[in-house]
Structures are given as C-alpha cells and as structure tokens.
Specification:
Blueprint: E1 13-16, E2 19-22, E3 26-27, E4 31-38, E5 42-45, E6 51-53
Antiparallel strand pairs: 1-2, 3-4, 4-5, 5-6
Length: 55
C-alpha cells in the first residue's frame, strides 16, 4: 500500500520577523483561499482559469 501524501500548504507561506505572509495572491473570482500560480509572464488560477498578465 502506498504512503499517504503530505500537505503542501507550507509552500504558499513564508515567515519574516516572526510574522507569516503569503507568497502568492488570491484569485479575484474564486475569493480567499484559492491561490494563483505565479508564472514568468502571468498569474493564473488553476480552479477557474482566470489569467492576469504581467507588464
């Protein structure tokens, strides 16, 4: 039997000076709790497909 996958939520946050901050932004359509993927030229939501192009 394969082992259980561990949660990867720790990748979305970082700690600076004892405070926790988010690395990526939330999707404006889906709301808080749904992170957008940071690509080289755009921000993309994996849930609804919303894309914001970087300038």
């Amino acid at each position: 039997m394969a082992g259980k996958k561990t949660s990867q939520k720790w990748k979305f946050y970082e700690v600076k000076d004892g405070k926790i901050s988010r690395k990526n932004r939330f999707c404006p359509r889906c709301g808080p709790g749904v992170f957008m993927a940071n690509h080289k030229d755009r921000w993309t939501c994996g849930r609804c497909g919303f894309t914001e192009w970087k300038r």
